[in-house]
């Protein structure tokens, strides 16, 4: 019968809550999978339609097929509001839900059983009856520089004054600008392939893009990366987005069968760091999405360090904080994020956030 390859014994003792967005719940215990006659025969996996999203869904599907050879897994790729609207400035939407709304509707009405997302794209407050079923092992969470084909530069520091960096993220442009005030920034939209094509076009005004390493690596385009950016990068630090690099799978809240299937994909350190980062963001955003940078490092087992930054929408002001503490459970991670949020506010994030919240109403289509 189904002998899924449980690499570690974590599923039987990890104090991870399968419904991570409900912080008050007591930790659930994942029992090792036993083939169950009443278990699902077929599981429908939803994803966005972009090439990267489909690669990610296939990665999940391949793992699950290996772990559960008796179950049929089928991928359903669909366009979302976010895919269709490439013109409105991203920050004007306020909520991140435009990437997930259609998929969540299908999840709730049973056409889908799980939806694969980049954790980074998931709103901190999921719609009612939706939950995070698992967070998978994190791919490299850092941001990276991709130079235009034919340019001999590798790093931001080498770029001549006035060079144009392509990014639509205030978090990225604000952090780069504070270290390299002589660089210029321009919005660049579309899926990762489209962005690279715009960068490399002969008449392109961009010298480079700043992107997430994870997306490029999953597309197998790692050879285009010319510089990795992190807090220790020479010439200035760069913190990544909350959840960046981790895939998360959304399920119907209380769907124990699907959650059990997903326990084989869950990664403890990713789950705890992702939970802490999202708790931090939840405390700060007040309904609006806010440019927050984080960098999470496990100093040793159970000891988490997170560096964090909040930047103003114009990229001029910023506040920073970092925290090192023991994080063994999802509850610890939630607390860690909350405390770090308070530290950030004490260090000046409050004024930045008040301005953001005053100018941008949140949009919640559900
Ligand atoms: N903004 C869209 C998005 N959402 C997740 C990733 C990267 C993959 C990941 O973080 O898992 C990207 C592309 C990018 O920022 O370069």
From TrEMBL:
Coiled coil: none annotated. It holds the Pfam family Porphobil_deam. Transmembrane segments: none annotated. Residues 274-345 form the Porphobilinogen deaminase C-terminal domain. Its EC number is 2.5.1.61. The keyword Plastid does not apply. Belongs to the HMBS family. HAMAP family: Porphobil_deam (MF_00260). Tetrapolymerization of the monopyrrole PBG into the hydroxymethylbilane pre-uroporphyrinogen in several discrete steps. This is Porphobilinogen deaminase.
